[in-house]
Amino acid sequence: MGRRARTKPLTARVLIVDDDERNAFAAREALEVLGHELVIARSGEEALRLLLHHEFAVILLDLHMPGMDGYETARLIREHPRTRDTPIVFVTAVFRDEAHIFQAYTAGAVDVVFKPVDPFILRSKVAILVELHLKTLEVRRQAEEQHALLEANARISEEKLAAELALREARERQDTILKSLPVVFTSRASVHPFPALFVSDSIMPLTGFAPSRFVDEPEIGMGRIHPEDVEKVAACLMQASISGAYACEYRWQCSDGTYRTFLDQGVWVPDANGGGGEILGTLLDVTDRRQLEEHLAQARKMEAVGQLTGGVAHDFNNLLTVVLGNADILLRRLGDDQPRITRQLSAIRAAAERGQTLTRQLLAFSRRQQLNPQVIDLNALIRNFAPLMQQAMGEGITFMLELSGGPLHASIDPTHLETALLNLAVNARDAMEGEGRLVVTTSEVTGDAGPMALIQVRDTGPGMAEDVAQRVFEPFYTTKEVGRGTGLGLSQVYGFVSQSGGRIEVSATPGEGAIFELTLPLTDEAPAAAAEAVEAAAVEAGSERVLIVEDDPAVLSLCLDMLTSLGYRCDVASDAGGALHRLDSDPDYDLLFSDVIMPGGMNGIELAQKAQERHPDLKVLLTSGYLGETGNQMQHGFPLIDKPYQCAELATRLRAVLGAPAMAETRAAEGRPR
């Protein structure tokens, strides 16, 4: 390193105030040897101007000057904040007495020099005062530098502290994020059994084991993998050092004994020293995702079955209508004269009724059946239906009710609810093989949509495995032997509950029975008064004019035979356009009996609306084997009879509709426009 450069000596300014050029020159000659800057002012006014722009170490001020003398100039210098501490040396040849000297000191002078000035004395006094000024400047500079250093140090310390705090906050935030994420970060050795070198804290909520267990017990990682998955996981990890990356999915047994599905993926990092390196990876719990995917696939499969059911229900019910209707007509005509043919027709009719039940079960599962909800007390319905459930289960099964204290009002189809309860009871009876206990309980719970009714059906049967419990609501799925069931009972319950705005779940453990839970929405409405029963025998026949609209020729022929045999005067049409033409040309029809699903761009509901707009007194009865999306239009309130229907049922419905007020009268009574 070179020698440090010598610091340049500090210089100062000296102000000489004298109106006499000779005196000013003499002072300059005496002080030039000091090497400082010498500034001369010819008057007090000029001196004050210079002091406003420059800083001076010493002021040599002549006392006796024309205009503003030395005393006045000194007073003004002392009054200004900038110059009040600047030392003033009075120079005088006139005022030598003590009074003037005292006045000079009073005016702010630090010394008095008499003329003629001794150069040595003047130089010595000025040198001392300049040295004091320079020392003051040096002290001030050092103080400023020290202050600047302190400020810089404080700023650096503050920045360092802020950086440390930010780093600490970032680490804490990172630790919090890592702990909150359902992701585990791992480091493993690259050789079997791939012991853990590091496991993040997020492993604890996923597995129930602390991270230290995985590091301290090398076998725990591979040792708790499901036996069926161990081989593929080992092969996957072995490939990591070859391909540089790995990804595998496996089941791992947690501390509570349950298996969770983990997605394990990462990369192989080689060792810089030539060692085996390590495997860095992440562990993600995908159990819920896989279950959701399975449920979605199951839902899609069940939806596909429902769509298939809806697609064939209309045509199938038309066929059943023809079979059942013609069987009824032939049975009535034959009477008891030909028992063998009567027995064969009865067998045909029984088989068709089984087909009718099968179709209704499928429609119930696919949530496409026609429901007639009513506000009922669930506890009252279950209490009244209990004897039939007990009879269906047999004497070997103990049947118990544990119903809630107050009423549970729900808007639901009571007939379908009874069918659902009966299906659950029969399913429990078969599971318990005729011996055990069945308990039905009700309670009120709070759901996402408000108050709900919970109906539990518990049995003491053998229970079921998890894979069976996940499939019990599938149509045609059954664990019974061939011939003991269609596998549609529970699927029908599932469809009815879902269509009613509720849900059904099953929980079962092998050897501990099963619990089916039906959750149904409650309502604030009160149950309506029960309607009086109408005896069918008094209303079977009639003589009114009926227009039958049906696109299926076989069903049309059957319906015409049924109604004419009952005494009705009937005409027919194969579509909505033909029906409207007949109604316009002959408006004296009493009732329109129409299928809902028809070709030609206009369904039966739209036909009924147009017909009553033109003929307000016309009564309407609709029929369908399957409504599909058209069922949304049934809010208009037209009565409906499902296919396949029997002759007695059709006769009763016809008399009920013909005896009721016309739709136009009903709308007028309710204040609605016709």
Q: What is the strand and helix layout of this fold?
A:
Blueprint: E1 13-17, H1 21-31, E2 37-41, H2 44-53, E3 58-62, H3 70-79, E4 88-92, H4 98-106, E5 109-114, H5 119-180, E6 183-189, E7 196-199, H6 203-207, H7 211-216, H8 220-223, H9 230-238, H10 240-243, E8 245-253, E9 259-269, E10 278-285, H11 287-334, H12 339-365, E11 374-377, H13 378-393, E12 397-402, E13 409-412, H14 414-432, E14 436-447, E15 450-459, H15 466-469, H16 489-499, E16 503-508, E17 514-521, E18 545-549, H17 553-565, E19 569-573, H18 576-585, E20 591-595, H19 604-614, E21 619-624, E22 640-642, H20 647-659, H21 663-669
Parallel strand pairs: 1-2, 1-3, 3-4, 4-5, 12-14, 18-19, 18-20, 20-21, 21-22
Antiparallel strand pairs: 6-7, 6-10, 8-9, 9-10, 11-13, 14-15, 15-17, 16-17
Question: How is this structure best described in words?
Answer:
Strand 8 (245-253) and strand 9 form a beta hairpin. Helix 14 runs antiparallel to helix 16 (489-499). The chain is 46% helix and 21% strand. The radius of gyration is 54 Å and the shape is elongated. It starts with 12 loop residues before the first strand and ends in a 5-residue tail after the last helix. It has 21 helices and 22 strands. The chain is of the alpha/beta class and 674 residues long. The strands form five sheets. It has a five-stranded parallel beta sheet with strand order 2-1-3-4-5, with helices on both faces. Strands 7-6-10-9-8 form a five-stranded antiparallel beta sheet, sandwiched between helices. The protein has a five-stranded mixed beta sheet with strand order 12-14-15-17-16, covered by helices on one side. Residues 1-6, 482-487, 530-539 and 662-674 have low confidence and may be disordered.
